[in-house]
Design goal:
With about 270 residues, the chain is an alpha/beta fold. The protein has two domains: about 1-65, Arc Repressor Mutant, subunit A; about 75-265, Rossmann fold. The chain has ten helices and 15 strands. The strands form four sheets. Strands 6-5-4-9-12-14-15 form a seven-stranded parallel sheet, with helices on both faces. Helix 2 crosses helix 3, helix 5 packs across helix 6 (about 110-120) and helix 6 runs parallel beside helix 7. The longest helix has 21 residues, at about 1-20. The N and C termini lie far apart (about 50 Å).
Length: about 270
Amino acid sequence: MVEGANRRAARLRQLVSILKGNGYSSVRSLAAELAVSVATVRRDLAALAAQGSIARTHGGALSMSDRSTAFEPSMEQKWSRQRAEKEAIGRLAASLVHSGETVLLDAGSTTWHLARQLRGRGPLTVISNDLTILQTLSEAQQITVLDPGGTVRPLVFTLLGTQTLSVLEGLQVNWTFLGADAIDLEMGITNVNIEEVTIKQAMLRAGLRVAVLADHTKFGQRVLARVCPLASVHLIITDPGVPGPMVDAIRDLGVEVRIADLSPVGARP
């Protein structure tokens, strides 16, 4: 009995440590990392949530350090989370872009996956305030890459400021693809960094078609600054982890929702 209790106490401490490092982890990934069953992880997470040590989400859990509406994950955390989901979302988004179109890409790890899928296609014109995206597309022969200029945000490699905003305000593009820190039915799309809000709003106004790219962990969440109501965008592209009732509620607002296929490319019929 004592040995079993000690093992569980050690496992609970390990869960808290993992979530603190990752910010978010799915139940299945936690079970694999701890070499225990999914049911065991669920029981442990329920106990930790009751203590206030972590917060449960659909299919996983968040460190309580993430619960501040002003908390912003590190670049490493953003790029390591939900890589399979982000890749699938980027692939589906890229399938909507046609030759000859102009595309405006918001900064972020999910939009970067879209940029990767656009390489080798074209001709296209792509504008982005994300230096990593610009670099990714810089050697694509049939893609004209436009840098709006501005001030580089330290350690994040995005462009902000009056110059960036001025250039974006003068654009009209076929597609704007926005990222989102959080999506809520009432608050709409919100962002942890206030400086980025005006940039995102200018991108939204520039797009003849506006799509939000967001994995399932962003849904049912609210953070510091409102970007726009959900009805301001045409399309949301996400993964199968979003609960069905939330998808239905978003569609009831007149917003199209597309669910990316997570199965490996070669395994599809």
